Amino acid sequence: xxxxxxxxxxxxxxxxxxxxxxxxxxxxxxxxxIDEARLNLAEALELHLEGLLEIGEPIPIEHxxxxxxxxxxxxx
Length: 76
Prior knowledge:
This protein has 76 residues and is α+β, with helices and mostly antiparallel strands. The protein has one helix at residues 34-54; strands at 9-13, 16-20, 28-31.
């Protein structure tokens, strides 16, 4: 068994939380709370990575550094 570590993002989305790992394209989930979204994402990532291995695809590698910041855009 191998252990993989990914940066995750959990953000509000309407009345739920949207969770994903930027390095793992296409793997997203939701939860009613931050904790639920985190747990759901752990399960989704586990299934996603197992699926990749089953079909012979490589596990995504998170490139460093990963920047998450805010950008202000003036709109007229």
